[in-house]
Protein: MarR family winged helix-turn-helix transcriptional regulator
Amino acid sequence: MAESSSPDVRTTAEAWESLFRTQVAVMRRMQQLPEFKKLAMREYDVLFNLSLCPGGWSRLNELNEALLISQPSLSRMVDRLEKKGLVLRRTAQNDQRGIEISLTDEGRALQKNIGREHVKHLHSMLAPLLTEDEFGQLRGLTDKLHSGLKND
Amino acid sequence: MAESSSPDVRTTAEAWESLFRTQVAVMRRMQQLPEFKKLAMREYDVLFNLSLCPGGWSRLNELNEALLISQPSLSRMVDRLEKKGLVLRRTAQNDQRGIEISLTDEGRALQKNIGREHVKHLHSMLAPLLTEDEFGQLRGLTDKLHSGLKND
DNA sequence: TCAGTTTACATGCATTTGCATTCACTGTCG
DNA sequence: CGACAGTGAATGCAAATGCATGTAAACTGA
Structure:
């Protein structure tokens, strides 16, 4: 079996660029879907991340780490989502400075609705392009990158 | 050799989610780098895409397809980049409605500078996480997705 | 050829974003 | 304790963004 040397700069950069461009191509197609007329992509992203939260409540700063927007932007986005009745906000128990956020029933329902369409479109877009095994490999590789980045 | 069936909905969705979350994790780390104090990420992205353009000139709508921002946003971003002396803008030859954009020398130099740092940081972030072969596999898979999406 | 449609980009305007800063609470060290 | 640095979120304000629309050029088909 051939040995795989430590990757050089060119290899990592080209792999990243390919990944990034693929993400852009998929996102552009997603953004145009009718579901995202109801709720902006970035707002959906907040609901989606909240839906993954084990206890249902997430700290604002923790949530922020999973998003590409700034802390003040998220703070105000949560304001808006709260006014729309999609999320709840409460002061954190252990730290009076912090706040915790969770989905309302309505927010959870909306996330599920949009998520379902989301997944359906993803499948119709992507499924023809790789085999089941290849998707598994892809996921294995990106999971490895993702988990490697978390502890740095 | 095992046969790989057509991928199911869950498989494609999970692979996408993993890819997307990895992209977010990398981007968050990139955004904080000092190079992006000079020029916003999105503006760099425009310069980068122009730098790839074979003839040096790119149509606005063509450029827009490689980005996640709206057409009016790009139109005004090009205004700003032009005022900063980083890009040139001219009316397209064959179509008086269209405009073509290219980097100035200064724009090209800035893109190269930022790009160099960009790549260096990418490498230090990612290289320890996969082998050379794995980066090759990753690139192969995302290239396949990307090229499959272009012709739809 | 010329009305009707489509395509490419620009603009008006309300909303959202980010940066810098502030405010409130926490933790530390003398 | 009590000043002081550190942390988490909110706010003022200028800049950037998107949607809807406008303008102009290019197609299209009687």
Notes: The first helix of chain A runs from residue 9 to 31.
